[in-house]
Design brief:
Helix content is about 20%, strand content about 40%. It is α+β, with helices and mostly antiparallel strands. It has a single domain, classed as STM4215-like (2-Layer Sandwich), CATH 3.30.2000. Strands 1, 2, 3, 4, 5, 6, 7 and 8 form an eight-stranded mixed beta sheet that branches. The relative contact order is 0.20.
């Protein structure tokens, strides 16, 4: 999907101004696109970490009241015939937003998930996407997984869950970024 990184940056900016600038959520770390990486330890065994494009370790720790990051799960290309020689491509990309938060923020995880999902539901105005070449851009929340052990297993494979249920919330929100564009309406490389 084109411009997924800038869309994630925009989502984080919206979350920062709407939710994470208030009360006990101030000082949270809103990270961008992440990738699961297999890493060899000094004893020759392997573990998994979540890293950003610049290899920043995004594995949750206790340094922040809340940490979120985004990961791409899957995408599809749907060609929609247009008028004349034009064809539109509608590209929905399945995403997950992983949330790790200390319970000391005194917000129930279902409330925090609802606040985040509400921010994720957005149809971008044409003026917001003019520079991209996209004709339409939407983001929408789909579902939430509250089972912290399941989310941890999806993110960190066979590693033991290091946090107590009473200490932290760890959940994920599945959402879709859907863009529509016409073939040839944007440059395919930075030098073009």
């Amino acid at each position: 999907m084109p411009f997924i990184d800038t869309t994630v940056e925009d989502i984080n900016a919206l979350l920062l101004t709407s939710i994470f600038s208030k009360g006990k959520l101030q000082g949270s770390s809103l990270l961008e696109l992440a990738y699961i990486q297999k890493r060899e330890q000094s004893d020759g065994k392997f573990d998994y970490v979540v890293q950003g494009v610049d290899e920043t370790d995004m594995t949750p720790d206790g340094s922040y009241p809340c940490i979120i990051y985004h990961r791409m799960l899957s995408g599809a290309f749907n060609i929609q015939p247009g008028f004349g020689d034009t064809n539109n491509t509608r590209e929905p990309t399945q995403m997950t937003l992983v949330v790790w938060a200390k319970r000391t923020i005194d917000i129930h995880e279902s409330t925090l998930a609802s606040w985040i999902a509400d921010t994720l539901n957005k149809t971008y105005a044409q003026t917001e996407i003019t520079d991209t070449g996209l004709s339409k851009l939407e983001t929408r929340a789909v579902s939430v997984t509250y089972d912290s052990a399941l989310v941890w297993a999806n993110e960190y494979k066979n590693q033991n869950y290091p946090f107590g249920v009473e200490e932290v919330m760890f959940f994920s929100i599945q959402y879709i970024i859907e863009s529509t564009y016409t073939k040839g309406c944007f440059a395919t490389c930075p030098e073009c």
